[in-house]
């Protein structure tokens, strides 16, 4: 919804620790906007994977999780000058940082960094800065998450995996998978449902070799007929000790939790049957991510709910339920 002439800078290609982005002005809402793209290229994936082994939050309350901290620092160093010039030219405008996925975390962290600077350092008031992230990964300590609630918003669609994805939640998922009696699950549940879950789970935990190996074995089990004795033969499944670690010792370490920044806006999917046809609608809930986003939900929608078009569709549906704005 921006005219081409209002886009002052557009960097399509990403590089390591710097996702694609644009800087623009929006005369309708009187905003200077820095928009940061989410994971889209191989370079972005490198950014995502940096510091996955980092299990601690820095003294400042930021995490290097997904490399978003370094990405935010890059924008701070290289684009603050252009942003300052835009705000000097448009005196009554505010600064809005926006992003999806990886870009949402970078936008939130950058807003937090800028808010801590003085008016003299920035060249404009820090009070005019706000950030909105869509499908943002957890990237700050609990204290920082709460302290930025007045100027950072995080929008999450239903089962989106990314806002729940951290080293700690992966460790919990790993433990959950190992404790699950998959033989009983496979005997009771419908096959398509199981295939969807296993397929998504393999994508989520592919970086954890032992869990991925076990899920691969489950995927093979799913393809076997329900009448096969192999499903009921527990000896065909890898033993927990074998899966947990090569030397047979269990790894019980759980990393520090990370949290979603700011105020949470949760897009909840509602499905009802109307004249024999399923109708999908959405409602918007406001609240605190808290403990509800510390666990990964293995569902058939955990990846599709992260897509930009899915979030866009859900937000459009929510807008249909809002009362009309009064003119003037």
From TrEMBL:
<dbReference type="GO" id="GO:0006629">
    <property type="term" value="P:lipid metabolic process"/>
</dbReference>
<dbReference type="InterPro" id="IPR002921">
    <property type="entry name" value="Fungal_lipase-type"/>
</dbReference>
<protein>
    <recommendedName>
        <fullName>Fungal lipase-type domain-containing protein</fullName>
    </recommendedName>
</protein>
<dbReference type="InterPro" id="IPR029058">
    <property type="entry name" value="AB_hydrolase_fold"/>
</dbReference>
<dbReference type="Pfam" id="PF01764">
    <property type="entry name" value="Lipase_3"/>
</dbReference>
<feature type="domain" description="Fungal lipase-type">
    <location>
        <begin position="34"/>
        <end position="167"/>
    </location>
</feature>
């Amino acid at each position: 919804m921006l005219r081409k002439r209002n886009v002052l800078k557009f960097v399509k290609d990403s590089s390591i620790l710097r996702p694609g982005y644009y800087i623009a002005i929006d005369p309708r809402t009187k905003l200077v906007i820095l928009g940061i793209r989410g994971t889209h290229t191989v370079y972005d994936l490198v950014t995502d994977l940096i510091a996955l082994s980092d299990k601690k939050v820095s003294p400042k309350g930021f995490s290097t999780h997904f490399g978003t901290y370094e990405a935010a620092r890059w924008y701070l160093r290289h684009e603050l000058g252009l942003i300052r010039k835009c705000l000097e030219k448009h005196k009554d405008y505010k600064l809005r940082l926006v992003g999806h996925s990886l870009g949402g975390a970078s936008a939130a962290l950058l807003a937090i960094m800028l808010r801590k600077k003085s008016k003299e350092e920035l060249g404009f008031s820090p009070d005019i800065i706000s950030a909105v992230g869509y499908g943002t990964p957890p990237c700050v300590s609990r204290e920082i998450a709460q302290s930025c609630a007045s100027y950072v918003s995080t929008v999450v669609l239903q089962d989106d995996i990314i806002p729940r994805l951290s080293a700690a939640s992966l460790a919990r998922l790993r433990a959950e998978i190992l404790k699950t009696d998959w033989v009983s699950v496979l005997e009771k549940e419908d096959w398509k449902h199981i295939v969807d879950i296993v397929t998504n789970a393999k994508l989520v935990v592919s970086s954890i070799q032992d869990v991925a190996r076990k899920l691969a074995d489950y995927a093979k089990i799913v393809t076997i007929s329900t009448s096969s004795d192999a499903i009921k033969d527990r000896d065909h499944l890898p033993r927990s000790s074998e899966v947990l670690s090569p030397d047979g010792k269990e790894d019980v370490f759980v990393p520090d939790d990370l949290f979603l920044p700011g105020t949470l806006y949760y897009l909840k999917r509602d499905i009802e049957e109307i004249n024999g046809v399923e109708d999908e609608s959405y409602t918007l809930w406001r609240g605190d991510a808290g403990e509800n986003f510390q666990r990964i939900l293995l569902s058939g929608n955990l990846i599709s709910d992260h897509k930009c078009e899915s979030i866009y569709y859900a937000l459009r549906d929510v807008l249909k339920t809002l009362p009309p704005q009064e003119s003037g």
